[in-house]
## 1
Amino acid sequence: MKHLYQRIRDDIEAKIMSGEWPPGHRVPFEHELMAKYGCSRMTVNKVLSTLAVNGLITRRRRAGSVVAEPSTRQAVLEIQDFAREAARTGTVYRFRILSRSIEPIDAAAAQRTGLPPGTEMLCVSTLHIMDDVPQAFEQRLINLATVPEADKEAFRDDPPGTWLLRRVPWTDAEHIVRAVNADASMAKRLQTQTGAACLVLERRTWQAGAFVTEARITYPGERHHLVGHFSPSFKGGTVGQAVP
Amino acid sequence: MKHLYQRIRDDIEAKIMSGEWPPGHRVPFEHELMAKYGCSRMTVNKVLSTLAVNGLITRRRRAGSVVAEPSTRQAVLEIQDFAREAARTGTVYRFRILSRSIEPIDAAAAQRTGLPPGTEMLCVSTLHIMDDVPQAFEQRLINLATVPEADKEAFRDDPPGTWLLRRVPWTDAEHIVRAVNADASMAKRLQTQTGAACLVLERRTWQAGAFVTEARITYPGERHHLVGHFSPSFKGGTVGQAVP
DNA sequence: CTCCCAATAATGTCTATACATAATCGGAAG
DNA sequence: CTTCCGATTATGTATAGACATTATTGGGAG
């Protein structure tokens, strides 16, 4: 015998997802569900407020609850960590630091990060290699004001992304995905052809409002794509991953 | 005075996100939090179980709760609806159906959708245009077994995606994002140049296990990118959108 | 010393109740 | 007829207590 909470929730979700209750349809009041399932109000309240948080219904005092308009479609993309992915698939991962310097940011970078122009940042370029084939080129800016210990780090054992993830928690991230044509130098680095379509993932992260890092990762298009899954109820299908 | 639930939750989230409680750190027991905040167990229990659902902590009976390992990074991408985006920005949106036919699917499509080869599907090609500039080319397969009424639909008022979204609820979706070079015919349709990098978004949706539709949407790379935001706690930064 | 079982400690679910808050409805006063 | 105010209704938050479930701990039997 399943728990009552799950049974009520499954029933209502099924009604909504099957289309039997279309958007705008009134959901039974809490006291009606109490009567139907013979339970207390706290139990049905927890069901309904959870559904509201997850966006399946909207609730208004006195007016009751109605099935929500189908939200704009979302996809949850899980960004791959190369080392972990390599361990999972049994391929050999390594990386090479191509450059490393401390430079003041230009106007465009200042705009993107919200920092004053001229702020000094650690700039690191990394090539990610699996089974001797270059898989991605990463250009990263690290805010030395937020992560001063990066100044002395050589990134010998771990690439900058992995190193940072273990050291600095983050509270907000912004992602941009684009398609660009590889220029000559990028093509050479990634062992592909000039003009080849590449996927560019830009990620900026902040910790409690303070800028942490910006990464621009370029994947050769014929070798990579991003995969994501989504179910409206967040019940388990919400994972996805970047697949080489 | 904020509600107690929010205060407790904010306190704990702050501790975790600031790094003061690193991954693996033990979270106070429910009875400790009861004592600290002078409230009942139901209140702290709701806080902790919500944090657990959102992945910030993991809970085990008898052992207590600990701060979770930072999950692999995720981005929530919100896929744009052209008509809605046009209404928001004040541009003129229109679309053109370039082709429409009923065809048996080939082996590759059967593999992707999980349907038997030879199943008849409605195939529709649509060009999305904003301010007279082509913005995206959409190739869509619609499962007539799941959506029989699509057979008689001419897609005069709404493009197939919008029409479907209003008619057929979906429970699961799969997204793939890739970068490809435009071939000659694609370049002509999108008024760009042969070889130009394009973002390709493939989406397949199911309703309770039954395949509904597959859409492959090609965006010229220089005109489009996808933007997403993410905060670990899902407290509000979870939205994002595709931006022309 | 090892194995097993009972006590214990923590979370998971549920109840019955209470008061607060917001929106709506209906009637009374103007 | 309109305006305003109270009554009503549904949800929002919180409490104290109960029993269930699960994992660990520790002690006793072999």
## 2
Amino acid sequence: MEEPPEEPSQSQESWRDHHTWITTQDILREKLITEDSFSWKLSSKGASQGETGYKKGEELRYVGGVDISFSKDDPSKACGTLVVLDFHTLQLLYQDFSFFTLQVPYVPGFLAFREAPVLQQLLEKMKRSDNPFYPQLLMVDGNGILHPRGFGLACHIGVEANLPTIGIGKNLHHVDGLTHSTVRKLLGAEENSSKDFINLVGCSGRIWGVAMRSTQGSIKPIFISIGHMISLQTAITIVQKTCKFRVPEPIRQADIRSRDYIRKLGMNGKVT
DNA sequence: GCGACAG
DNA sequence: ATCTTGTCGC
């Protein structure tokens, strides 16, 4: 018998790890809830600002956003960030950071095993301390069910934290025949020219999410998919209401502040 | 077989 | 993800 040639640089990530990861995703996916499942509600148009008799906590108010940014010097150094914004005013209510060293490589389809642990820790820390701003909904920088096995980062965090989540992708993850050109064709189609979002229908007929022109006149869409305990329709509504720019504010703020945190640590190479 | 592939 | 300043335009 021949010895399988060793790949020194690959010794950390064998196909075995992927198999374990797939099993984990398959198991967690059984707990996924793909419809609205929360106690709050979206305030009805016009009655949102004033106190109209709703009990506190019944309306959506605390929207979280998570992101991770990396040091350009040392790609294994990163900063996980959690922010919470007021759904109506989009003002920052809470922010927390966690600087850490990455142990797991990025492998397409397995982003959660690299990024979910830190983000979950940030959520857990907030919950343990009974912070009144603990998010009622979390927006995640990465996909939900728009994923090879229908279980992206947003689903992963949602299930493990038992929290409603929405996945926001800035690039399309090719799944079920969906490609860059597919989307371009759909967005450019005559009958869709006036719509601000289109369903991402794969070859199988399944709807994986939507591509949305979040800002008027923006060419490059964002990709919205459900994470956990929320319907696509509700997810779309919430994203639209939180978009001042292309990327919804909770994600955008987490991104900006995360970068800023790393920069202020002097991890950007500039020593001037 | 080759290429594609969230962050 | 990260590499990158100014610049053209609403």
